[in-house]
Write a structure and sequence with these properties.
Length: 304
């Protein structure tokens, strides 16, 4: 039986290679602090569309003449978490450009939110994320989780710890309860993506570089376009490629937060996707197509 780890209460939502659709839960918050020689000069809290539309590199350039500038925040969806960091006092070098380092880790994920029962025996499910491992296993909000991979669950904290102690890709038994009946279901542990984006000064403008060992003798010919651009809501994405590998389509915000992802397994050389940005705030969005190790990106401006 697996030894339980120290419990940290986190939401078990995140990223998985399935089509999630455009229904999502979003939480965002960015805190900006400016300092002078006497201490904090101004503190600003951005939430909602104000946080999502913040152009961080431009903001840093505009206010970097102050004594100190810090930007910290996060953007969480059902698909991923992006953590944002900048501190002008922790820069290793000066420069005319703003670059970013992105560190991404994968954590075990099943895609549920639950609440502890009054009798401290199991947890009642409040939400199951669409197309998550829990949803694929047939788990729904009318059920309760009593045990997870041999661990007795007495609280949501217990469930969180049990999931975090699991291995991504393994299949575990979950003891469920509905009414007086108890039964087993089996979940294959997925993964949620947590990315930490750290902004820094740099001497040269940042570009995506393809390592020499990844260059192909017969490179794939591909094109990615969209129209209209700018758009008021609907974006028509067209992709053509000489490769017949599966396609992963992603939509990301300008700071890299994942908004939408779907996998197309029957790609035959031409792809047309109509994606609606009507629920997003004005700003720049990145349409991305991945085939194997090749990634193609196209920026779309949303102006309502």
């Amino acid at each position: 039986m697996r030894k339980m780890i120290v419990c940290t209460l986190v939401v078990i939502f995140g990223f998985m290679n399935f089509s999630f659709g455009q229904n999502k839960s979003v939480t965002e918050k960015i805190s900006i602090q400016t300092y002078d020689e006497k201490g904090i000069l101004k503190q600003t809290e951005l939430t909602g569309n104000d946080a999502l539309s913040l152009d961080i590199p431009s903001y840093i350039k505009e206010y970097d003449q102050l004594g100190r500038l810090t930007i910290n925040g996060y953007i969480k969806t059902d698909l991923a978490t992006t953590i944002i960091r900048f501190d002008s006092n922790k820069q290793e070098a000066d420069g005319d450009y703003i670059c970013k380092n992105v560190n991404t880790i994968l954590k075990p994920f099943i895609g549920v939110k639950a609440i502890g029962r009054d009798d401290l025996n199991g947890v009642d499910l409040e939400r199951v994320v669409y197309a998550s491992p829990a949803a694929i296993a047939g788990i729904n909000i009318s059920e309760s989780i009593m045990e997870f991979d041999g661990e007795v669950i007495n609280s949501y904290c217990d469930l969180t710890a049990a999931v975090n102690a699991s291995e991504i890709g393994e299949t575990v038994e979950v003891i469920m309860k509905k009414g007086a009946r108890q039964y087993s279901k089996y979940i294959t542990i997925g993964s949620r993506e947590v990315s930490t984006v750290t902004y820094k000064y740099c001497d040269e403008e940042q570009y995506d570089i393809i390592p020499a060992n990844e260059l192909k003798e017969n490179p794939i010919e591909a094109t990615l376009t969209s129209y209209p651009n700018p758009t008021r809501s609907l974006s028509h994405i067209n992709f053509t490629s000489t490769s017949d590998e599966d396609v992963i389509f992603r939509v990301m915000g300008i700071t890299g937060q994942l908004i939408h992802q779907e996998v197309i397994t029957d790609y035959t050389g031409n792809l047309r996707i109509d994606y609606n940005l009507e629920n997003e705030s004005d700003g720049t969005y990145i349409m991305s197509i991945q085939q194997g190790n090749d990634i193609y990106k196209h920026k779309v401006q949303l102006t309502k």
